[in-house]
Write a structure and sequence with these properties.
18% of the residues lie in helices and 36% in strands. By secondary structure, the protein is α+β, with helices and mostly antiparallel strands. The chain has an eight-stranded mixed sheet with strand order 5-4-8-2-1-11-14-13, with no helix packed on it. The radius of gyration is 26 Å and the shape is globular.
């Protein structure tokens, strides 16, 4: 009986060792493979050799090897950060109403946003307004209908006012209009507006709206939305939140807009009104042929 017990223990130990080796010889994803193709002194190695070498390392050294993966500054900036209730502060400005004009073209999408903004009662005059925004190509900014140069941008935000180039502090309430361009066809994050097969769709929860237009992309900022969606008639379905209040063919061009196409005879539009205030993460748009 003792001999059988020892034999069983030996078999289990061998099986455990075999399974552990299998676990450390995975089929790496392309990103992991690219990371592991350089060893700790920067020499390029074959991915299969690297995979075998990782499997041969002691367990305490494997984690160290994986931790040497280099993350650039942009990835660090976009990495999610923990947010705690104890750190909550109301925004310096509030957005009460949102009007969006989303014009989908093949290879690019223009988004014109008109925001009704009010300064918080506890915000000092002259305080700049900081809006969230990622991967947006900014074309124009106006405040109460007048174009302004008093702003600055980085990879994650747009800062307006505060006595910059125009040296004009933001008023207590104003209409902020921005025009941006995005490329849903190249959006592989599945966040914001992206193209999937023959359809354009959105994923705004939790912080995807900032990839569509500049906004206070936080759940405590709730606004009413009026949304116009325009696209080619080859994409017959146009949808957004709220009630459909108008639709039809696009019959004229706004030549003053940098996003206007040369011809719109084959295009159509739909306008949706959502009368109930909602946070930006609940926003949704679908453009496509749902029959396919």
């Amino acid at each position: 009986a003792a001999g059988s017990k020892n034999s069983l223990c030996s078999t289990m130990a061998a099986a455990t060792k075999f399974a552990a080796n299998l676990l450390w010889r995975p089929s790496f994803s392309s990103r992991s493979s690219n990371i592991l193709k350089k060893d700790h002194v920067g020499k390029t190695t074959d991915s299969m050799t690297t995979s075998t070498a990782v499997g041969a390392l002691p367990h305490n050294n494997r984690a160290a090897l994986f931790s040497t993966a280099v993350v650039d500054d942009e990835e660090k900036a976009k990495a999610p950060t923990e947010k705690f209730r104890k750190d909550y502060k109301p925004p310096p400005y509030w957005i009460k109403n949102v009007e969006l004009d989303i014009r989908v073209y093949d290879g690019r999408t223009a988004v014109i946003s008109k925001l009704s903004v009010e300064r918080d009662a506890n915000t000092a005059p002259g305080t700049p307004m900081v809006l969230d925004g990622e991967d947006l190509s900014l074309k124009k900014i106006t405040i109460d209908g007048k174009e302004t140069k008093d702003y600055s941008t980085d990879k994650l935000s747009l800062t307006i006012g505060g006595g910059g180039k125009d040296n004009n502090p933001l008023p207590e309430s104003f209409i902020l209009e921005t025009e941006v361009e995005i490329i849903p066809e190249e959006n592989t994050q599945l966040s914001g507006l992206y193209k999937s097969g023959s359809m354009y769709c959105t994923q705004c929860e939790a912080e995807g709206f900032r990839r569509i237009t500049y906004h206070l992309d936080r759940p405590d900022v709730m606004a009413k939305y009026l949304v116009r969606v325009e696209a080619d008639k080859s994409w017959p379905v146009l949808l957004s939140n709220g009630n459909l209040i108008d639709s039809g063919d696009v019959v004229s061009n706004d030549e003053s807009s940098s996003s206007s196409p040369s011809s719109s005879s084959s295009r159509h539009f739909a306008i949706f009104e959502d009368p109930y205030p909602k946070p930006s993460y609940l926003f949704a748009v679908v453009v496509g042929d749902l029959g396919k």
